[in-house]
Write a structure and sequence with these properties.
The protein has 98 residues and is α+β, with helices and mostly antiparallel strands. The chain is 31% helix and 27% strand. The protein is globular.
Length: 98
């Protein structure tokens, strides 16, 4: 099935915020270009949901009404309505907790 993806701003903001904080903490080893590359790769991974990324049980209570997918170090909370996948939230593995 060919899905359409709708990524909510919160999900993108979580990814951006994480890598902006990495840049602030490690400016000598993590560059602005690195930050952009990681942000783009993390957001691009979303398009594997329901294709190469398997559906999982949510790891956090706040995601209980959604499905969860995992790619590299990131987890994504999403819902499916027909052929539209809506990504509601994203969380780095270091921050998975309630």
């Amino acid at each position: 099935m060919q899905y359409k993806y709708h990524i909510k701003p919160l999900a993108v903001q979580r990814v951006r915020s994480f890598y902006q904080n990495v840049l602030l903490k490690y400016p000598n080893t993590f560059s602005y270009d690195d930050m952009l590359k990681y942000i783009n790769n993390t957001v691009d991974a979303i398009y594997g949901i329901e294709h190469s990324l398997l559906r999982r049980q949510p790891a956090m209570k706040r995601w209980q009404n959604w499905h969860m997918a995992h790619a590299d170090n990131w987890y994504y909370a999403y819902s499916i309505d027909g052929d539209i996948i809506t990504i509601h939230d994203a969380c780095h593995q270091q921050n998975i907790h309630d």
